[in-house]
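U., I forgot to send this yesterday:
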Amino acid sequence: MVLMGVFTSTPAVPSLSSLRLSLPERRRAATFSTMAVLGDDPVRKWILTEGNATEITRISSIGGGCINLATRYDTDAGSFFVKTNRGIGPSMFEGEAMGLNAMYATNSIRVPKPYKVGALPTGGSFIIMEYIEFGMSRGDQSVLGRKLGEMHKAGKSERGFGFDVDNTIGSTPQMNTWSSDWVEFFAEHRLGYQLKLALKKFGDSSIYEKGQRLMKNLRPLFEGVVTEPCLLHGDLWSGNISTDKDGNPVILDPACYYGHNEAEFGMSWCAGFGGSFYNSYFEVMPKQPGFETRRDLYMLYHYLNHYNLFGSGYQSSAVSIIDDYLRMLKC
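Result:
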């Protein structure tokens, strides 16, 4: 049966004739029986065909966030990690898969390799990816910083700032229309979009008007700064950072785009980055003048997104950052 997105099955009692079959024959028969009963299950279909498995030995829920359900499929060909969403179509997972593939291609920090994205016949969507066995600790922060710097250094775009598709930050749409101007891109597609959403959802004209003033006066913060399009994870907080069983850093659940590398630290208020992290990172990607002054600007985008996702508890933090910048920039 299907219960809350977790697929379970009750083992059938074997017939006497089936007991006379050889082990390989019994496995093939069980596979055909399973596929017949669950004929419209695209996750099982992929695992038992393109996934090169002949038998699914166990399916277990491993929780999930507030948006998707996460499940582990153990098979005779290894384990797979599957996320499902009952209310959102494949476009969200397609954006995630493209981001994972882009990060994977930099050959720097470890990310789960995506295999398949598709629609569920009952509505919603799924993504199948590599299952990574996580280690017991958060790992060495200096290694994480160095590996992240290597990803930013290797992942470049000749098209400018943006990404090939729009994706999501949490469940909020993230607009990634290409732009050659970072300040313009960040103002319009990051701050501007979130401010419009706050006005629409909450009627918050005060934060909208203040935010618009800030958007028009950002350039002094970037004087003398080299901004080049680097591949960003885009949603790097503690819940999206782990290690594999060998202690190597792993990052997951991205909201990728090509942007100013400093924007990667917009979620640092809940990422736990320490001194060793930043020291190692800046050995690969040298710190630019005014980094500390711009850091809150990048946090603002995520505070605004949390305000739009989770409500008024984040509004005061966003307003405080905007007010500080308006005073600093005298606008």
